[in-house]
Amino acid sequence: MAITRNLKTKKVIRTAGLMTGTSMDGLDISIADIGLSNNIADFNMIGTTSIPYPSDLQSQIRQAVYGTKKYSSALDRDLGIWYAEKLFEYLRSESIDNIELIGSHGQTIHHVSGQSTLQIGDPSFLAGKFNIPVISDFRTADIYAGGTGAPLMPKVDEWLFRNIDTAIITLNLGGVANVTFLPCINNGDVIGFDTGPGMALLDETFLVESKEGIDVGGEFALEGNADKRLVNNWLKAPYFLQLPPKSTGRDQFGINWLADHWQELSSLAIADQLATLSSFTAKSVFLACEEFIRDHQVERLIISGGGIHHKCVMKYLVKWFSPIAVVPSDELGVSVDGKEALGFAILAVAHVKSIPGNIPSVTGAKKALVLGEMTL
């Protein structure tokens, strides 16, 4: 088709990236002019925003994720319509025009590492609204090739940061935490995996105890004291001993995990619960890096995702990773809140240029593959 042939040969493509993560809190949008060649992604960020889910839509998503209500195709449709409406409203409000491509991750409602995955938010409504190609369903091809289907950000990190002349670790703190190790230029392999819980356990606990919202800034958690015994016991779970490639999700670190540990956790004051979970999250990240990214001299931990705003988690990360500098991805020119959405915009560009978007050593896939399916 002519439109895709034109995109394949274009040096720079204005692309919208849409991301709704395991935090299930809303939609992140990033708009950028993207060039991808020679294993380097060049981009000019046009705009980025975050739009919270309306409460009724969020409730339906949570019910689908946790199995309290059977998933229906109506939710797939409604979410696709909502994506299209919100992207249109954002572009109009910022007077952004001439987007040529959309990369939409969708909302994960099911992911079993290496077995199956499902992201919803029908891309047909985006394609119909904007009359341009939409790339979605990024994870399935990797799973079909024997991979875990996640994480996918390591390839994006390689494209964005591989020209840095020092070894770094990137950390995305969403509902789940995942890391990418990038060695110095041409000095080793990229390593990437999910370390375990990100913000999901903290968000769910605060919702249970407060009946409203989340402790975005970590102010309540800062008032508490972590129970070291509980943290150390939780870190003995099999997932933390499992060798990469590995990925996880709310099936392992969500409300089911809280139900299994609620008796011991609920014996603490609310602030202490949150401080303990903050310490657990941060220490699980640190120990994973210490165990699986050993024998590498790392100078910086580059953080993005909603968890960067949680002061208590950040306090523990700085403590555990010292003397390694802990810095936001903003310092490298990549928005902390828009990075994942930008990542799926870049993966969409990779798709139309037939560039593989996974790293087999990270996901365990048999080969590198072009990721995603196109809707026109």
TrEMBL record:
The keyword Translocase does not apply. It is an enzyme of class 2 (transferase). Keywords: ATP-binding, Carbohydrate metabolism, Hydrolase, Kinase, Metalloprotease, Nucleotide-binding, Protease, Transferase. It catalyses: 1,6-anhydro-N-acetyl-beta-muramate + ATP + H2O = N-acetyl-D-muramate 6-phosphate + ADP + H(+). Pathway: Amino-sugar metabolism; 1,6-anhydro-N-acetylmuramate degradation; Cell wall biogenesis; peptidoglycan recycling. ATP binds at G21, T22, S23, M24, D25, G26, L27, D28. GO terms for molecular function: ATP binding; kinase activity; metallopeptidase activity; phosphotransferase activity, alcohol group as acceptor. GO terms for biological process: 1,6-anhydro-N-acetyl-beta-muramic acid catabolic process; amino sugar metabolic process; peptidoglycan turnover; proteolysis. It comes from the Bacteria. Catalyzes the specific phosphorylation of 1,6-anhydro-N-acetylmuramic acid (anhMurNAc) with the simultaneous cleavage of the 1,6-anhydro ring, generating MurNAc-6-P. Is required for the utilization of anhMurNAc either imported from the medium or derived from its own cell wall murein, and thus plays a role in cell wall recycling. HAMAP family: AnhMurNAc_kinase. Belongs to the anhydro-N-acetylmuramic acid kinase family. This is Anhydro-N-acetylmuramic acid kinase. It comes from uncultured nuHF2 cluster bacterium HF0770_19K18. The gene is anmK.
